[in-house]
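[Discussion] Sanity-checking designs against the backbone

I'm trying to build intuition for which residues belong where. Below is a structure token string of 183 positions. I'd appreciate it if someone posts a full sequence so I can compare it with mine line by line.
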């Protein structure tokens, strides 16, 4: 592996300060997630049943993400007076042995075939390299090819209220475009 192909040591991503961050690499992540749910439900005086449902949905999302290499979970309430699901960003790192990572064009083709007609899949050239973007009405996924061919960093945005064709969708696109590798 040449120095240009060496995998980065980390990544940097510009996420607005008002997005609540849950670090899934720490054991206390459930407590942090519960803090978010309690804080948001207190604002809108949500019934306990809705609060419990929100907690279970977000917890299950985080646990499923952890099984898939999730590192961070960001949450942003879109409606201040309801217990609706917040906009979210789940960041995962899916590592593969060097040389076995599919090329972006190949992976994009597989994703397009798997996701069907309701999803728009394309490959973008960004400063961090080739990025596969898959967009539906309420989700926006970016799979960024990690230098050195060791896997993909996956940015999974969910926008259940505003949808991807909205100012919030534009913000999520800008967040993804802000990604930089750290050597």
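Best answer:
Here's mine. Compare freely.
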């Amino acid at each position: 592996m040449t120095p240009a192909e060496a995998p980065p040591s980390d990544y940097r991503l510009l996420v607005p300060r008002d997005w609540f961050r849950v670090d899934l690499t720490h054991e206390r992540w459930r407590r942090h997630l519960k803090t978010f749910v309690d804080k948001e439900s207190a604002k809108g005086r949500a019934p306990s049943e809705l609060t419990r449902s929100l907690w279970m949905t977000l917890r299950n999302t985080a646990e499923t993400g952890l099984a898939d290499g999730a590192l961070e979970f960001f949450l942003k309430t879109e409606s201040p007076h309801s217990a609706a699901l917040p906009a979210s960003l789940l960041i995962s790192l899916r590592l593969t042995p060097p040389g076995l990572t599919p090329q972006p064009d190949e992976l994009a083709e597989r994703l397009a075939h798997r996701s069907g007609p309701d999803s728009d899949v394309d490959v973008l050239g960004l400063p961090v390299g080739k990025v596969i973007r898959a967009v539906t009405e309420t989700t926006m996924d970016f799979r960024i090819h990690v230098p050195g061919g060791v896997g993909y960093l996956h940015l999974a945005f969910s926008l259940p209220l505003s949808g991807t064709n909205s100012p919030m969708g534009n913000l999520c696109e800008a967040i993804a475009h802000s990604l930089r590798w750290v050597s």
